């Protein structure tokens, strides 16, 4: 089928205009936020206040909605902390993860518990991050400084970064590499 230059296509029939959807209630908005990820009470308050003010409500209306959701178990500060630890601890050091928890408005006791959990694994997490990013010890002082800055920017403590760099250097030394265990050594066969 050939089209002529002056041939015009017939317009499609237009769909009927939809009526605008009414705005979500504060509870509906809160549930929408919570369905995406865990939110702390402080985060939800911050997100819901502009909508409440636009609808002519006040801070007490938002507080009532949040109280109701907390009573039903939809808001849990402990779950928020657990979620952040699960998502972020594998890539970040203690300082950065704890800063994120504080920014979410979590209570000090929950932040302290998270700090205790993180402290036990910081060096192992720091080494894993270093190995993924670099994988080999620095060749010179400038490269060492660059690697250390990267680790510090991720929130790992100076002591942990120093231990990671020392471990990387020691493992790179000939004769210090972990030796393969023979089957005789492993099973005690003679």
Average pLDDT across residues?
85
Shape-level CATH architecture of the largest domain:
Orthogonal Bundle
Q: Count the helices. How many? A: 10
CATH topology of the largest domain: Arc Repressor Mutant, subunit A
Could you say which overall geometry the principal axes of the C-alpha atoms support? elongated
How does the helix and strand content classify structurally?
mainly alpha
Low-confidence stretches: 179-190
> Could you give the order of the helices and strands?
HHHHHHHHHH
Domain module tally? 3
CATH class descriptor name of the largest domain: Mainly Alpha
The share of residues in helices is 55-70%
| Biggest sheet features | none
Percent of sequence in beta strands: under 5%
Round the Cα radius of gyration to an integer and report it. Answer: 28 Å
- Distance between the amino and carboxyl termini: 86 Å
Number of strands: 0
InterPro entries: RecX_HTH_2nd, RecX_HTH_3rd, Regulatory_RecX, WH-like_DNA-bd_sf
Domain RecX second three-helical: 76-114
Main location: cytoplasm
Pfam families: RecX_HTH2, RecX_HTH3
Structure notes:
One of its GO terms (cellular component) is cytoplasm. It holds the Pfam family RecX_HTH3. It is found in: Cytoplasm. Its main location: cytoplasm. By secondary structure, the protein is mainly α. It folds into three domains: 26-75, no CATH class; 76-120; 121-174, Arc Repressor Mutant, subunit A. The chain has ten helices and no strands. The chain has helices spanning 26-36, 41-54, 59-71, 77-88, 94-103, 108-119, 122-133, 141-153, 158-172, 183-187. The chain starts with 25 loop residues before the first helix and ends with a helix. Mean pLDDT is 85; it is low at 179-190.
